[in-house]
Amino acid sequence: MLNRSIAFRPKKRGLWKLFIFKIRIGVKVLLTAFFWKYPHLISDKQHSKILFTVMFGYIPDFAHPRTMNEYICATKFSDQKLSLSQYTDKYEVRKYVEKIIGKKYLNDVLGIYDKFDQIDFEVLPNSFALKATHGSSYNVIVQDKNKLDKKEAKRKFDHWLSQNFYYKDREKNYKIIKPRIMCDAFLLPEDGELEEYKLFCFRGKVGFIQHNKQILGRRYDNIFDSNWDIVPVKYGYDGFDGDGKPENGDTLIEIAERLAVPFELVRVDLYNIDGRIVFSELTFHSGGGLIPFEPKEYDRKYGKMLGL
User: Fold this and answer.
1) How confident is the model at residue 14 (pLDDT cuts 50, 70, 90)?
2) Cα–Cα distances in Å, from 195 out to 54, 99, 104?
3) d(C-alpha 30, C-alpha 40), whole Å
4) Is the Cβ–Cβ distance between 182 and 109 less than 8 Å?
5) Distance between CA 286 and CA 110 in Å, rounded?
6) Average pLDDT over residues 260-286
7) How far apart, in whole angstroms, are the C-alpha atoms of residue 198 and residue 222?
8) For residue 222, how many other CB atoms are within 10 A of its CB?
9) Residue 7 — very low, low, confident or very high, per pLDDT cuts 50/70/90?
10) Are strands 195-202 and 205-215 parallel, antiparallel or unpaired?
11) DSSP conformational letter for 94
12) How far is CA 147 from the centre of its chain?
């Protein structure tokens, strides 16, 4: 594996831009929570348009989207996205992955449950990961099950399983997924820092790669093009120095493009565990279409990859 230094390379905003950005984020969070609680007050299209306007400062043209984020926000609520449920469900998607690239790229599943009370912790190993199959960030990572607060974990999963994640960002592909809990084998690289490559595929071809790495408990991202050259753009998180093409970089791209063939736009998320590639998930509306690029010209550049 590539040796990487821990020399952080934050891309700083000016104070005024940082203030405005934080205001936008705060308003988005409040509106998302409000409309998640009262979903029938607003249509999916209105929801998408309002949040886009808050985050980007202009009213989108959903009939003629020009950027990647505009495209996502214009299409994520379409009924056609219901057909993507089988690829969005974190358990069901495994069938597709095994068919296309083989079982060796799948993490081991230790159990699948309809509710938390069905989990038999006695038969599970000491370390594992519990994930809800119907949403995003519905995870409890267990490094030592003897230290797990089962009451708190149950409270979280009972709440998560009661939610329809579709109503959060109005991504229609989540709407009909059956809520379940999946128990995955624990993934731990030698350096203890889990890293993930998110390969954005446009019409079956990798357009850019987001390298996500946890360093000292904090997330950092670098953006690469399909040739593994660093792109001077920020997409959500600060970058870090000492990064480059991993030894299995060509294989990461090959796997992502094979999985992306049927889709107009998909993000293929792959873990890289000491050179072992492990499938994570398929994401069809990265960030709900609400993560700005800095500089913003890259949003248009990636929109062009969709023929916009």
Assistant:
1) confident
2) 31, 25, 19
3) 16
4) yes
5) 28
6) 97
7) 10
8) 24
9) very low
10) antiparallel
11) H
12) 28
Q: In this structure, which amino acid lies at residue 71?
A: Y
End-to-end CA distance of the chain: 37
Choose the weakest-confidence range: 89-93, 155-159, 176-180, 242-246.
Answer: 242-246
6: helix, strand or coil: coil
| Cβ-contact 251, 209 below 8 angstroms | no
Q: Do residues 80 and 254 lie in contact, with contact meaning Cβ atoms separated by under 8 Å?
A: no
For residue 51, give the nearest of 79, 24, 21, 17 by alpha carbon. Answer: 24
How confident is the model over 213-233, as a mean pLDDT? Answer: 91
Strand order in the sheet with 218-225: 218-225, 205-215, 195-202, 265-273, 276-283
| Residue 233 near residue 293 (C-beta atoms within 8 A) | yes
- pTM for the structure as a whole: 0.93
Q: Are 272 and 252 in contact (CB under 8 A)?
A: yes
d(Cα 265, Cα 257) in Å, to the nearest integer?
11
Show contacts of 143-151: CB within 8 Å, 24+ apart. Answer: 143/186, 145/121, 148/121, 150/121
Phi, psi of 171 (to 5 degrees): -90, 105
- Cis preceding-peptide flag for 295 (omega within 30 of 0): yes
Q: What is the mean pLDDT of residues 42-48?
A: 98
**What's the CA gap between 154 and 238, in Å, rounded?**
34
Q: Which two tokens stand for residue 5?
A: 């230094």
pLDDT at 5 exceeding the cut of 70? no
Alpha helices by DSSP H, listed for 57-205, are: 68-75, 85-88, 93-101, 150-161, 166-169
CA gap 275, 230 in Å, rounded: 20
Q: Check if the beta carbon of residue 125 is closer than 8 Å to that of residue 186.
A: yes
Residue 200, beta-bridge partner list = 208, 267
Give the pair of three-digit tokens for residue 195. 């890293």
Phi and psi based region of residue 274 (left: phi greater than 0; alpha: psi -120 to 50; beta: remaining): left
Q: Using CA atoms, how far apart are residues 261 and 169, in angstroms rounded to an integer?
A: 25
